[in-house]
Amino acid sequence: MSTLLSRLLLIVAFLCVTDTYASPALGSSVPLGLPPAAEPEDNPQTPEKVALGKKLFDDKRFSLTGEVSCATCHVEEKAFTDSPLSVSEGINKLTGTRNAPTVINAVYFKTMFWDGRSPSLEDQALHPPTNPVEMGLKDHQPILDIVRSDPEYVKSFKEVFGKSGEAVTMDEVTKAIAAFERTIVAANSPFDRFFYGGENDALTPDQKRGFNLFVNKGRCVSCHVIEQTQALFTDNRFHNIGVGINDIQADVPGLAHEFLKAEATASQVDVQVLTNKKTSELGRFAVTRGFDDLGSFKTPTLRNVAVTAPYMHDGSLKTLDDVMQHYNNGGVTHEGDPVNDFLSGGIRPLGLTDKEIDDLVAFMEALTSPEFAHLAKNKAARK
Amino acid sequence: MNKSRMSRRDFLKSAGALAAVSCLPVSMVELAFADSRKNFSFAHISDSHIQHISGTKFVRNWDRGLIRAVAETNLLVPKPDFVVFGGDLAQLGKKEELDHGAEMLSKLDYNKVYCVMGEHDYYLDLGDYWSKLYGPHYYSWDHKGVHFVTLNSVITYDKWTYERWPTAMQRMVEMAGLDNPNGSPFMVGEKQRDWLRKDLEKVKKDTPIVVFSHSPIQKIYKGWNFWTEDADEVQALLKPFNDVNVIYGHVHQVQYNQIGNISFQSVMATAWPWPYPETYAQAESHLPKLTVPMNRADPFFERDATGWQVINVETGRAAIKYNLYNNTNRTVAFNPKTGHPEDIAFQNPARRIPPQTHY
Hints:
Chain A has about 375 residues and is mainly alpha-helical. Helices cover about 35% and strands about 0% of the residues of chain A.
């Protein structure tokens, strides 16, 4: 995006009335605290495409049982997660191995899924329909049959892509879904109003202390990045923080050898990591087969974290207090448990007091966007 | 704008290419021969600096470095023939440190681990307890047509060792400081050179030689003891052989050099990089004090700028694959065209990654 264009977008942002969800890619608004979002040249945003994408996102017919859609695990009223489930439920109540990440601000991720095995929102949308524990289809044909024949879809695909019949493929389907997902952005939290908006009283005193701990003693900011003009709260990298892999340490050599011996295809990896709990815990290693990635998972954004419990790639930590205890112990959930051999070099005991942990949790509660603030009232993320 | 959005196929292709570099022989040394049956590799771990605090407490950061290198070495496919530990297992030569380090090394799933003496192992009791764990200070062996030699290159003048310091621990601490002007230059010494001369007499001149030492057996920088005082004499003994490789630790960074027929290559430390950044001062770091900062490591990630290696000696010349955390893995291999070891990716200036110029 050219500098001029991004400036224009910012100006437009101030002039426009905000929709339900701001859409930086559509130029309607860049919420305080976020940068303009990327928009692929081969998939420009249009209001019609976004509307089509939402319809596809919500369509349960794209599953074997007709009961599961994207929105089953990414529920708008649950901040686009399936909170309070630890791991997602697909067809016939089958469970996978990983906690549904929120779609909010997914547009800013450089890779998709907890292990980054997908390079884009478009590609990501291809996989859940054919995963046996998610939507359970054998292949994408049932989806194509519906979108090529359902009169509403026929009309929309013609209108949005100028295509109909056989010319409508999963390429168009996933582009529309991705376009919708790109509109789901949220910032403008109390933290943003404090740090970027100059509202000194937007944060409470304990939240301010928590902010100080976040960027200093707590070492949080090294991965959950805050910059001078924006905060994605992720470094878009992968780290072994001692979740999941801690439980399978004795199995690592055997599991790792399986991956090192035979090259797995993308879809094999997709199925293996979601259907085999132990394989799942290898993390990004299953994708790259690099030792540095053993047991490592993507740094999630912390925006709206107070309303997306439970936490971690496996949903194993119920509250933000639990999360802080895990980090404070240097990468083990229960103090004194063995640390895994492949722990990221950034993780070490922090020496935080209970009061400091409270302050850090208070700070994370200040990252909730106004669109989702009502969820926090109903469901305190704290103990 | 997302102009470079990759197709999934490209994405996986590049991920696969990374994997081939990163997970195969990491920090393994591979020695390659025309006869592929003789092909083999070995892993090399070095400079773990296990540091005792008190009781059963040790510096966590150094422990984690060695634990991780051992665990990863156990995952290598194909499995290397043996492992070398390149010295400085301990920080201050203490029994507690050597025992704790030996316990971690015992987790290596290999029949044979060859150990090299480092100055941090040596200067408390002059290698006495180390010997109880690992045997002689210098020795040689043959493996699949290669003659291997391990030297203790960290001894120094008798006067410094036996007369200068009131206590053994003070002697140890003085030698432990990298840029301490009270230190003394390392050497192999006359006794070991005599042994080496005799050891090499029975070796054919076309047999590839691999020498392990802790200090470089070449003169790099005396102020930091990146140095061996009698390097010239040792090199003279190695000169008659066609293919000689000297692989050393101590410097905690990638170095390579060629002197005549001898290729010199260093290995990475698992503990910390030399030089290293002034530390991320939010918690007691236990890093030794040093005057020269570096901009290579990300100090948040304590393993950054550390690593270990897999070495292949296929051509009679060592090709070292460095497994580097939070970093791009590197391979330094002998280039027959130029006659010296080269980084296979970054030798070309156009491919180099410019250093960071600010913190």
